[in-house]
Amino acid sequence: MNKGISTTKTYGSKEIASAAIKIALTTERNEEKQYQLEYQKLGIYTAAADYGGEFITSVMKIVERAVVSSKREHVIVDNHVEEGAVAGATREALSQIMTKALGLNVGGKIGIARYKNHISVAIFFGIGLLHLNEVSIGLGHRVV
């Protein structure tokens, strides 16, 4: 798990974005928890949440799940600045995929990672119409 991330350095937006993507790509809860424990040893806090539904009607639910899971896993504290940072990064990630997903069903996982003042949100999308699925990742970053 610890490939490319040293325990003796500080991490910037690139490493935190990578952590968020890795969390979003986990397929099982055990795998997700294993990554969370490894990252926590490095001072990187992570959270994840699943989601699914029609894209337009799911946007607010996705943002809410990102914020709630971030608070639940103690990635952020309960204040409007940190909640706004996660919400903004989530909206940025969603906007990167919007043209592919409009009018279609989406499902996947949100991965959130934080190290000090860097917060990244990655959203793994399965975008579907019947059995014709597309996959994509949106990524947003904020500093708090």
Please describe what this structure looks like.
- The chain has a single domain, classed as Hut operon positive regulatory protein HutP (3-Layer(aba) Sandwich), CATH 3.40.1510.10.
- Helix 3 packs antiparallel against helix 4.
- The model has no long low-confidence stretch (mean pLDDT 93).
- The chain has a 4-stranded antiparallel sheet with strand order 1-2-3-4, sandwiched between helices.
- It contains 4 helices and 4 strands; from the N terminus they run H-H-E-H-H-E-E-E.
- The protein has helices spanning 13-24, 29-41, 55-72, 80-101, and strands at residues 45-54, 105-115, 118-129, 132-143.
- Helices cover 45% and strands 31% of the residues.
- It is of the alpha+beta class and 144 residues long.
Summarize this entry quickly.
This protein has 144 residues and is α+β, with helices and mostly antiparallel strands.
SSE blueprint:
Layout: H1 13-24, H2 29-41, E1 45-54, H3 55-72, H4 80-101, E2 105-115, E3 118-129, E4 132-143
Antiparallel strand pairs: 1-2, 2-3, 3-4
